[in-house]
Amino acid sequence: MTNKIWLSNEAYQKLKDELKYLTGEKRQNIKKRIAAARAEGDLKENGGYHAAKEEQGKNEGRIKELEYKLANAIIDAPVKTDEISAGSLISAKIDQIKKKFILGSREIKDTLKDNSIDVYSPTSPIGQTVLGAKAGDKLQYTAPNGKQIEIEILKIDII
Fold first, then answer.
1. How far apart are CA 122 and CA 120, in angstroms?
2. Where along the chain do the CATH 1.10.287.180 domains lie?
3. How many helices (H) and strands (E) does the chain have?
4. Which one is the CATH code of 88-158: 3.30.160.100, 3.40.50.150, 3.10.20.30, 3.10.50.30?
5. Would you tell me the crossing angle of helices 27-39 and 47-71 to the nearest 10 degrees?
6. pLDDT at 77
7. Cβ atoms of residues 134 and 82 within 8 Å
8. What is the pLDDT of residues 5-63, one digit of tens each?
9. pLDDT tens, 112-155?
10. Which of 51, 138, 52 is closest to 130 using CA atoms?
11. Do the beta carbons of residue 159 and residue 102 sit within 8 Å?
């Protein structure tokens, strides 16, 4: 499942809308700016041309990222609440602090009504640790800084 990305329906639609904008209106606006700057003459010292070309590169990079995410998206909601999978809403104690989080793509965060819920990738250290766990399980993972973190799974829901 390493190349699959779990998205909520709302997050999937948001990414599709962004892709449509970037490949349509924004791409055309950048092309017009490049053409206008090119018409000014000498490109070596044309700041507007170089800025538009840089923006074009960033736009095309984001388009490729969105195309990859949408092509690899899983938008089915998990149907089980007895075992953690991508899309699960988890209540847990992480280093004795109660937290709620979802396993999925970071794009989900913008679509959540509750800003206190974090989103972790299933491929992150915490995501890999809790995948397949059940309520009541006590787990431990190594954070990127090397610290050992204890997790107790309190409850598993679906969003």
1. 6
2. 5-74
3. 4, 7
4. 3.10.50.30
5. 160
6. 65
7. yes
8. 888 888 899 999 999 999 999 999 999 999 988 888 777 777 888 899 999 999 999 99
9. 888 889 999 888 899 999 999 999 999 999 988 999 999 999 99
10. 138
11. yes
Indicate if the pLDDT at residue 2 is higher than 60.
no
Task: Mark 73-103 as b/e (b = at least 16 C-beta within 10 Å).
Answer: bbeeebeeeeebbbbbbbbbebeeeeeebbb
Q: Is 113 left (phi over 0), alpha (psi -120 to 50) or beta?
A: alpha
Q: Give domain 5-74's CATH number out of 2.30.30.100, 1.10.287.180, 3.90.550.10, 3.90.1150.10.
A: 1.10.287.180
| Residue whose C-alpha is closest to residue 139's, from 84, 80, 102 | 84
Amino acid at 123: T
- Tell me: the pLDDT tens digits for 85-102? 888 899 999 999 999 999
- Supply the pTM of this predicted model: 0.70
Amino acid in position 50: H
